Amino acid sequence: MNDPQLAAHLALIAGRLLLGVRDSKMLDGKALGKAGDQTANQFLVHALRSQRPEDAILSEESSDTQDRLAKRRVWIIDPVDGTREYGEGRADWAVHVGLAIDGEPALGAVALPGLDGGTVLQSDKPCLPAPVSHPPRLVVSRTRPAAEAVAVAAALGGELVQMGSAGAKAMAVVMGHAEIYLHSGGQYEWDSCAPVAVARAHGLHCTRIDGSPLVYNRPNPWMPDLLICRPEFAEPVLAHLRTMTIVR
């Protein structure tokens, strides 16, 4: 099994495990989210250590060590991206399995277990949706829409679409359900590595909101911001963001 196949297989199986935990009806809310995180993380970490023992792992649910910085290949995973949505029984949560090589988001898979029995989007199976003629749709947080996203939507005549996890938002752009995902509230590398790998493979623009590259496996995994969008919207969005920076 090659790396892209492994990422997709692990994301799919982790998603099925998470659905099984939720369907047991033994837990709900935060307790369900915690149990799901632990179950999926244990599976993913053990599987990766078995299948790729020479690689490093960075996971939201495992203690981080600086040993990964000496490795060229680092699997960056989020066992449940959107724990709140998962615990609430919603569909807008995801499983992220990404591989960074020399700091680049080389490949990944994002499972959306709540959609159609378990949709998995992969970096090795790209398919960019057809160009759109309507105003852009921007996916934003359900509770804290980024001020920059609100401003860009107003400037471009776009529509704001509220959604849960980062992975669900990014995959909405990949699947053609939205055109722009702009986040400025800060995330961690596991929130975006796999989604960015998939989005880039599908021909989407993926950078920081100042246009600079996204770099992974850094000593501090905190990432301040992110822009994933259809290529035709990249320059209009970045141009407006530059104007906002000048005003500030």
UniProtKB/TrEMBL annotation:
PANTHER family noted in UniProt: 3'(2'),5'-BISPHOSPHATE NUCLEOTIDASE 1
Alphabetical list of Pfam families matching this protein: Inositol_P
Name of the protein described by the UniProt record: 3'(2'),5'-bisphosphate nucleotidase CysQ
InterPro entries for the chain: CysQ/Inositol_MonoPase (IPR050725), Inositol_monophosphatase-like (IPR000760)
Protein species of origin: Blastomonas aquatica
